[in-house]
Amino acid sequence: MAQRPLTWSRRLIAVLERGLPPALLEDHEMRRRALLIEGTAWLVILACALTVPVILATTTGIGRITSLAADLGTMLLTFVGPGLLRLRGTPAAAGHWITGCVFAGTLYAVSTTGAFASPYWILLAIVPFLAAQMAGRSAGHLWGAICLVGVVALFAVDRFTGVLPQFHDPDLTGSTTAIYGAMTILAVHGLSHLADLAKDEAIARAEAAAVQLEHADLEVERARILAQQAVAASTAKSAFMATMSHELRTPLNAVIGYAEMLVEDADAQGLPDMRDDLVKIVGASQHLLGLIDDVLDLSRVEATKLDLQREQFAAEDVAREVAEALQPLARTRGTALEVRPPAVPLITQLDRGRVRQVLVNLVGNALKFTARGRVTVYVRGEADGDAQFVVFAVEDTGIGIREGDHKRIFEPFTQVDSSPRRRYEGTGLGLSLCKHLVEMMGGTIGVRSQVGQGSVFTVRLPVAAPGRSAPAAPDAAC
């Protein structure tokens, strides 16, 4: 949006706004009143300053002294108005204060310069207008009533007591009336112009805010469309990954089957070199099958199509099964792998296959990053009020993880070392899949680790699976 030129009126408004509380400038009406209070205060101070030579020319003796004192006092008291505006953060108190200063000064001037023959009467007419503009409509009504009461009281004193002094030279009434009439006209015109400027600024800001709001609505609509496209793309990706993973498993299972048959033939025919190569083919194929299974499971989890089964089993039995299955890997790494079961069997009702899958990933990761060390699987029970939990803690003495990477390692396809020359291979799916599976079973997973001192991955699961889990058939295989 093009910036408007800085006119004299905008410069004036900028000067009056200087030092005002931000809360006053945010609301258009409060800002308009604050600007009028600032402008009125300076006009009153200027008028008091210009009144000094008139007082000197039209009064003498005690009248001159008292009039100058009253003029100076009005000027000083008016300074309090802008201070109240900044201190209280609302135009009401400051508007009433400045209106009171103008009323008191005018009433004093009228009562000491001929009462109803005084040239200052015209100033009293603008008091309700000032109050309404600075402090609100109700303030205008209030000060209008106060002015009427003041007129009645002054009339009564002048009519029935005759004690009002006459400090003004009656021969100069015409001149002073012209002077103060002109000053009043200029003051009312200046304040009206300032009110219009504030109103125009408020309209311009409202229009700018409306344009910004329109742009924001367009951005929100664009973001909504992009979000819908992202959801559709994620759904399509998950469907594609699930389909492709399934299609890849079928030929890969055949490769593994035929390779295992060839291993048996090589054993029977006494071909050790060929057997070693075939065993490598079987191992690589099984590793690839595991990766495909992880991709398939992750896509199902993201598409919320992974069903959990529920069966009764001892938690420590699953931990022992995982340890036995991974003992060969532990031996090749020169690492001791052991299970620390609870004192009494811990019976749970969870998806045994998914619990086993989580432990395989965690223990496998621990072994991968621990060479000639120790990996320990702890199984224990915990209680939180009436809720019972089973806790699996996989502790290793491996390389550890930096504190800043503790959350990042649970993101899909994320590894701590993602450089092309990284020492440890992997897709970064295992821990992400573990987190999804654990949360689907109503549990939590966390990690404590220090670089060079090892890691502890802790899985906390409810003893009974969430109600949405379907019970497994009695003869279901694990």
Automatic annotation (TrEMBL):
The chain crosses the membrane at residues 35-56, 116-132, 139-157. Gene3D superfamilies: 1.10.287.130, Histidine kinase-like ATPase, C-terminal domain. It catalyses: ATP + protein L-histidine = ADP + protein N-phospho-L-histidine. InterPro entries: HATPase_C_sf, HATPase_dom, His_kinase_dom, HisK_dim/P_dom, HisK_dim/P_sf, Sig_transdc_His_kin-like_C. It comes from the Bacteria. The keyword Transferase applies. PROSITE patterns: HIS_KIN (PS50109). Keywords: ATP-binding, Kinase, Membrane, Nucleotide-binding, Phosphoprotein, Transferase, Transmembrane, Transmembrane helix. One of its GO terms (molecular function) is ATP binding. Signal peptide: none annotated. It is an enzyme of class 2 (transferase). Its EC number is 2.7.13.3. CDD domains: HATPase_EvgS-ArcB-TorS-like, HisKA. Residues 243-465 form the Histidine kinase domain. This is histidine kinase.
